[in-house]
From TrEMBL:
Highest taxon listed in the record's lineage: Eukaryota
Protein name listed in UniProt: 2-oxoglutarate (2OG) and Fe(II)-dependent oxygenase superfamily protein
Family, as annotated: Belongs to the iron/ascorbate-dependent oxidoreductase family.
Native source organism of the sequence: Rhynchospora pubera
UniProt keyword Transmembrane present: no
Domain named Fe2OG dioxygenase: residues: 190-291
SUPFAM superfamilies tied to this protein: Clavaminate synthase-like
Ubl conjugation recorded as keyword: no
Amino acid sequence: MDTLLSNMEFHQTVPEQFVLPPENRVAGEINASVSLPVIDLRGGPHCHVPDRDELIREVLRAGKEFGFFQVINHGVSEQLMKDIMGVTEEFFNMPKEDKAAFYSEDASKTNRLFSSTIYGKDGPRYWRDCLKLACYPVPETINEWPNKPTKFREVLAKFIVEAREVSMMLLSLICEGLGLKEGYFEGDVSSGQVLINANYYPPCPKPDLTLGLPPHCDRNLITLLLQGDVSGLQIMHQGRWVGAAPIPNAFVVNFGHQLEIITNGILKSVEHRAVTNSGAARMSMAVFIMPTMESFISPAKELTNEENPPLYKSFLFKDFLRIYTDLSAKRVDVMEAFKINV
Ligand code: OGA
Ligand code: NI
């Protein structure tokens, strides 16, 4: 509890546990000549899209080239985007007594507030506080969410339903674009938990010594990320880090490991990390669409044949999660564990 970064005075130095070994630090320039594609979702899931084929092409192009893109005009109102960031900021700004009930260092707990994650045994700490919550279906989960600030539950309930609908719209475009059978992404594979990570990265006196989050790929199917106006998210693209510049009210979209495996590598789960800065606190809200625990994941039959054999193994999602955690979320190791060596 005393380790919550959001309840500390500004650090003058970086405490030793947060100092990364030199090879893991933010090194070299980011590739500033590349930016993430921005896709206009034509009003979002409740709008008629007259040029659906063109939109599908845009999503697949961005998905194949970057595995990461931003979406605007996605149907979630500016007010709701403002409100969700507002209540999250209020949450992190509360005195620590008000957060105590949520604080837990037990990583097996779904709903919890924690700080400075360590991956693996004795690893360095990361410069981030995180509130993690299971949010779906709302009536089954809402009573476990913080009830302070007062509006927190009401705003999150509204936000999560709409954010999930945007994710489902994207999945439906991908489904059609790849020629998968209709509704491929509507069953078990997307109807597990919807988790959120509300991330808080306080200013850091020496950003070159630490990271907010180490390079990782997400474990789920598809992720939407809402970030405020402070930059910090970086994406691996053609061997170099590229910044995801904040665009007001946009969602950053990326694919989790499950989408890479189901599409047999047509869409990639791309490594990303969060860097810190010395000037301003940064907040982000990640929404993770998860398969059910018993969901059977395998490369889609429609996308494999003799010339394109399955590149990945088949498994139950719960078994994937266990291995992902054991391997500290490192892409090369996770992919190695699930790859078929053809
Ligand atoms: C995550 C994540 C990035 C960010 O929570 O998995 O990648 O910018 N967050 O906070
Ligand atoms: Ni992530």
